[in-house]
Design a protein that fits this description.
- The complex is a heterodimer of chains A (about 250) and B (about 325).
- Chain A is of the alpha/beta class.
- Chain A contains 9 helices and 10 strands.
- Chain A is about 35% helix and about 25% strand.
- In chain A, the strands form 2 sheets. A 6-stranded mixed beta sheet of chain A has the order 6-7-8-3-9-10, sandwiched between helices. A 4-stranded antiparallel beta sheet of chain A has the order 2-1-4-5, covered by helices on one side.
- Chain A starts with a strand and ends in a 10-residue tail after the last helix.
- Chain B has 14 helices and 2 strands; from the N terminus they run ααααααβααααβαααα.
- Classes of the chains: A alpha/beta (about 250), B mainly alpha (about 325).
- The complex binds adenosine-5'-diphosphate (ADP) and magnesium ion (MG).
- Chain A: Pfam families: ABC_tran, BCA_ABC_TP_C.
Chain lengths: ~250, ~325
Amino acid sequence: MSLLRVENISKSFKTLQVLRDVSLEVNPGERHVIIGPNGAGKTTLFHCITNILPIDSGAVYLDGKEISKLPAHHLAHLGMSRTFQKNNLFGDLTVEENIHLALAAKKPYRYDIFSPLISRTDIRKETNDILEQWEISNRRHVKVKHLSYGEQRLLEVLLAMASNPKILLLDEPTSGMSPAETAQTSEMIQKLPRSVALVVVEHDMDVVFAIADRITVLHHGEVILSGSPDEVRNNEVVKEIYFGGGAKKHA
Amino acid sequence: MKKLLLGVVLLIALVFAMPLVLSDFGINLATEIYIMAIFAMSLGLIMGYAGMVSLGHAGFFGIGAYTVAVIGQHVANTYLLLLLSVVISGLIALVTGAVFIRTSKFYFLMITLAFGQLLYVLFWQLKPWTGGADGMSVSAILNFGFGEIVSPNGFYYVMGIAFIIFYILLRLFVESPAGKITKGIMENEARMSALGYNVRVYKLLAYTLSGALAGLAGALYAYFNVFVSPDLSGWMFSGQVMVMVIIGGVGTLLGPALGASVFIYLQNFMSTYTERWPMVMGALLVALVLAGKGGLIHWLQHGKSLFVARKRTGEAVSQQPVKKGEAVH
Ligand SMILES: Nc1ncnc2c1ncn2[C@@H]1O[C@H](COP(=O)(O)OP(=O)(O)O)[C@@H](O)[C@H]1O
Ligand SMILES: [Mg+2]
């Protein structure tokens, strides 16, 4: 059974229809990449899947359970996690404090109003583990706004991974990065454990083909193709509208 | 936590040292300042840690004050009256907040303004109980079981200690998981929601705590002032406490308390010279906003960090030879 099933969802902003009968299936552990020109509706699709925006019609299922009517904060508890296209970290907090906030979401003491958060030994230990695992222990006390852009995007992924999700949605993880940072991020994404399925919106074709098991092409809010990297690479329609004639190095 | 302990020791020292230098008038003024500081901290909590700007916070202050004035005619126990003030204002904050927090920033401002005005009118209209526009005197007398507190010094110490207690409680809240999470929500709601937090619960929690504390400040004020009137819930007073928070510094706890001190002091000081003291206050506010430092407390912190930085660079210089030595290896 597929882990995430998006069934014929549509979404309009006033008169502008941004998503039209979009369907999508993601299996456990799968790396699913969504490509499509700017304005195709990729970010909106993520917002609809994660219920940041309500959908007009259709349904979204996680593990066979309909989630389209659940409030956004429930999804994290069901194992769905995401990053945002724009950096969405807490700039005035340190790396460590950002991780604390990500971890506390699943703690029974998240409604505690008396004892200091930092006095909790479990959260301190888990934070240390994460810092070591991602090799950023030396950056723990740095305020996030003082990190490089690439580091911020990395932290963004790491925070989304902190809740141990079954599925992680990454919205343009390499946008605005230098080539070196892009390569680094691509490598990091490939290293993520297969216990988590990934749905990634990505523009950089090197990254796309490096990570994708399956690719879905979104155009003007419609899925025009969903298939293996080879199928997508060789599809005439895709070449026409996305690669602009197929003269790209990947073709 | 060490910092909190140090801060509390300093505050205690302050509270107990002031009577040594203050005149009777000064004692009275300081007592009022402590009460207003509690009130300002309560508004500062939602403004600076939850991103909610209320123009009706005096509504809760009035509820607390009238609780002591009205129910105090029949109930003498100070603990019970204070508890009632906190519970009633907290409950009203909970119920109204459940609706208010769903609105956007602008509508929140408007709806809280309307809330405060509604209470103002209510205290005005319920003449048989509240004395209407004339207000009413407070017959309840402060008594914590150690005898009636009536002297200016007695009031001074009670309010000073209350201020310290609520400062500690607020500090604990701000450092607690719920406090940190609320701050996170203020900065980035969608993000916190995606991380799995029910953002409305936290906003409502902060609003309720803030309303309850404002009610308590009102209750203390009723004891202190022995007279309450609808103005305690009016928009003027709501605006004034907001000014206290802003000139003191949004986003800190002691900032609003400092703002309250400066505000009350200037109000008393200037009103003896000129009728136009609100203009002077306005000018001060504009100057502070233009200076862009975010309140008086930030000037203090800025001064402190300059001092600390100088000390640090001093240390760094003395360490340099060691580092150079390492570099040679
Ligand atoms: N909140 C919104 N209100 C109105 N239009 C929007 C909103 N968000 C996105 N859009 C429009 O929807 C279309 C798709 O946007 P988006 O999903 O961000 O595209 P993509 O992520 O594929 O670049 C764009 O035309 C954009 O202008
Ligand atoms: Mg986008």
